[in-house]
Design brief:
alpha/beta; 6-stranded parallel β-sheet; Rossmann fold
Length: 228
């Protein structure tokens, strides 16, 4: 039993102290091996492709590229990826958009260490796992028509991957030149994407994009993590 191969885990979380805590918790448990740590969603996408871990534990509120968009990109490139979302938000709409990306699990950040370990084991074995409170609401979510995007819907509007990336960076305060450098595209292309965002979302100012990003969980207020 003790000689069984450990489950490999990639941690995607922008707070260093939280990553360190999760790593210590998992490695002390003895059945897991943390093989990578990502501070941004973009790093998570790159590390998932390079390391192919058994399970990815993904925060949502990360800079540059949020966890939902990172999840969407990882699954587009590697459909077999097993991803568990770890979030402070668990309202129905938020969970619905997350489930729509194709994740294998969703845990509240207030979950216990025992539940976290169980979730990783279940997901690594090819099953799904949701926090008990969320699981009780899954029947109604599954009954709805969901696509594999889960992000950027407003009155029927659906954002492309690039538009979602531009939206987050603009909402985080990046200037057009900085967005262009981060994404490796021209400033003119950034301006075009930003205008498309405004048109699709029926917004007329940058502050509106920021409010939308916060409301959609693309960026969010930092909430202290409690894992006991």
């Amino acid at each position: 039993m003790t000689s069984a191969k450990p489950i490999t885990v990639l941690l995607a979380e922008d707070h260093a102290i939280v990553r360190q805590g999760l790593r210590t918790l998992l490695e002390t448990e003895g059945r897991f091996a943390v093989i990578g740590q990502a501070q941004t969603g973009r790093e998570a996408v790159d590390l998932a492709a390079a390391l192919r871990p058994d399970v990815i534990l993904m925060d949502i509120a990360m800079p540059v590229l949020n966890g939902l968009e990172a999840t969407r990109q990882i699954l587009a490139a590697w459909p077999a990826a097993r991803i568990i979302i770890l979030s402070a938000h668990s309202d129905d709409e938020y969970v619905e958009r997350t489930v729509a990306t194709g994740v294998a699990g969703f845990l509240e950040k207030q979950t216990s260490a025992e539940i976290l370990a169980q979730a990783i084991h279940e997901v690594a074995a090819g099953k799904s796992f949701f926090s008990p409170a969320i699981a009780r609401r899954m029947a109604s979510i599954k009954g709805r028509s969901l696509g594999r995007d889960g992000l950027g819907k407003a009155d029927g509007a659906r954002l492309t991957t690039r538009e979602s990336e531009v939206l987050q960076l603009v909402a985080e305060g990046y200037a057009n030149k900085q967005v262009a450098a981060e994404l490796g595209i021209s400033i003119k292309t950034v301006e075009k994407h930003r205008q498309n965002l405004m048109d699709k979302l029926n917004l007329h100012e940058i502050a509106g994009l920021t409010r939308y990003a916060i409301a959609q969980g693309i960026i969010e207020s930092r909430v202290q993590v409690t894992i006991v």
